[in-house]
Specification:
The chain is an alpha/beta fold. The chain contains 9 helices and 8 strands. The structure holds zinc ion (ZN).
């Protein structure tokens, strides 16, 4: 069985022994490939260092996280844009809209999103999109920038059935993470009715650990629990979930 974690910040561990330990646990659980979403200019070296340490398993994405979009965002984007040409990059991310932490930067976040989705379309790269408390704002932007060329994943999808369908209609896949294992989150009922061909798996580690590790630090090897939960919801084997979602991820990210 082969699984792809399409969104993991395991590169935060770069330079520590824990990175190697976590990768070994990934291999034990069948998590063979990890896509690493960059967040700001500081994280580029950690992403690229991790990719160099595990070139057959870790793949870099480059982007500016919406929570890191401040007044100086154009300087940040300049640095990140240079990294796009200096390295082999597999996606633009993570990018998006976050109105949970700071609503005052919305116009800047929208502008940064337009610029970064522009890169994705020009370079033929998929996007990894973060959306928190901002579905309406995100869908409006996607309607604006989607010209048939934008592909990728709405990462850590936690919306309802209607929002899932709208995302699919906009040409994107849904990244399903640990929230699907949470009681009372309601995501399990939504995912139970979604066709596997629109889904990819992710941990978003070290955040949002799945049951039975809730309350602790997440890691990419826990992707297994997310795959098993989706298998239970669809009443199929975990191998079938792995095969379908891994094929999707490999196709979307060209790995
Ligand atoms: Zn993330």
């Amino acid at each position: 069985m082969e699984l792809v974690d399409t969104h993991t910040h395991l590169y935060y561990l770069y330079g520590t022994a824990e990175l190697d330990a976590q990768m070994q646990r990934c291999f034990k659980n069948g998590v063979r490939y990890c896509l690493l979403p960059n967040v700001d200019r500081e994280s580029i070296s950690k992403v690229m260092g991790t990719v160099s340490a595990f070139p057959d398993n870790c793949y870099a994405m480059m982007g500016l996280h919406p929570c890191d979009v401040k007044e100086d965002y154009r300087d940040e984007l300049d640095v990140i844009e240079k990294a796009l040409t200096a390295h082999k990059i597999y996606g633009i991310g993570e990018i998006g809209i976050d109105l949970h932490w700071d609503q005052s930067t919305l116009p800047l976040q929208q502008q940064a999103f337009r610029i970064q989705t522009g890169w994705a379309k020009e370079l033929g790269l998929p996007v990894s999109i973060h959306c928190r408390n901002a579905f309406d704002e995100l869908f409006e932007l996607l309607e604006e920038v989607q010209d048939g060329r934008l592909t990728g994943v709405l990462h850590c999808f936690t919306g309802d059935a209607k929002q899932a369908q709208r995302t699919i209609d906009l040409g994107l896949h849904l990244g399903i993470g640990g929230v699907v294992t949470y009681k009372n989150a309601g995501l399990d009922a939504v995912v139970a009715n979604l066709d596997l061909r629109y889904l990819v798996l992710e941990t978003d580690s070290p955040y949002l650990p799945p049951v039975p590790h809730r309350g602790k630090k997440n890691e990419s090897s826990y992707l297994l629990y997310i795959a098993q939960k989706i298998a239970d919801l669809h009443r199929i084997s975990i191998e079938e979930v792995a095969a379908a979602t891994t094929e999707n991820a490999k196709r979307i990210f060209s790995i």
